[in-house]
Amino acid sequence: MKTTKQLAAFFLSVVLICMTVPQKAHADWFDPLTIHFLDVGQADCILVKAPNGQTMLIDGGDEHDAEEIITYLKREGVTQLDIVVATHPHHDHIGSLDDVIREFPVSVLYMPNLPYDTKYYHDLFRVINEKQIPVDRAKAGVNFKMGFSVKVEMLAPKGSYYKHINDYSAVIKIKHGKKTFLLMADAGAEEEKEILSRGGYKADVIKLGHHGANTGTTMEFLKKVKAKTAVISVGRNNPYQFPSKEVLYRLDNRNMTVYRTDQLGAIIATSNGKKIMFRTNVLH
After folding, report:
1. Is the backbone of residue 211 left (phi > 0), alpha (psi -120 to 50) or beta?
2. Is the Cβ–Cβ distance between 41 and 62 less than 8 Å?
3. Could you say which residues form the signal peptide (predicted)?
4. Taking a C-beta distance cutoff of 8 angstroms, is the pair 109, 135 a contact?
5. Closest to 100 in 3D by CA, of 157, 170, 40
6. How far apart are CA 9 and CA 24, in angstroms?
7. What is the pLDDT of residue 12?
8. pLDDT under 70 in the chain at which residues?
9. Rounded to two decimals, what is the model's pTM?
10. Cα distance between residue 250 and residue 217, in whole Å
11. How far is CA 8 from each of CA 12, 18, 199, rounded to the nearest angstrom?
12. Per CATH, is 31-278 categorized as 3.60.15.10?
């Protein structure tokens, strides 16, 4: 028969366990989320590292960016990619994604329903088939969590047909505690209107669509999103003269803080759920 002391010790241990479990879950809320906007020139590549250790890679740069992306991911301690998103099939978003996903185990890959007859698209699917990576459709309404504190939702695309390929872009909202990031891929004005019609788009940080081109980032969209900070993934001395003067004027008019990869190199945002801090990694 257990003694009174043994029983008391047993019940005390149960109480301590019950107190510890929710405290750990609550603490995770304030563990850091980091979002890395890689400097891949006139292209897009974003690494998301959740507090629970899960990773998400959004796009894979252009044709010759594989080595740089893979080196960056390994330097960040990435050994596998839990989620990969190919926002749309243009070369400056999937150009090196085949080589990147060949290097790391991938749990699931999201992409819009848009077959595209290019070498880059076929190369990507060749590796997807070789590695038997599950592919899900990127579309409005897709949502999932990365651990306790990070909620991911796709706000677009909602429709099945768009005039411009950029408007098929998977637009992703990431919420961590009280802070929210809105990643626009190459979304233009048409997709912005679609997002505004559905709600749930307010954010603290916005990664501008289409490298700051005047095809989107309308004043109406900026006013309703209410972001205080903009990130622009854009190449140095690019022939398109992105970001456009019109878009930069709108950002200035809104008194937004602007971070550009062509000026600052990789841009790393760190959120603790209450505040977002930025640092840069100039490699040129």
Report:
1. left
2. yes
3. 1-27
4. yes
5. 40
6. 23
7. 43
8. 1-30, 282-284
9. 0.90
10. 8
11. 6, 16, 54
12. yes
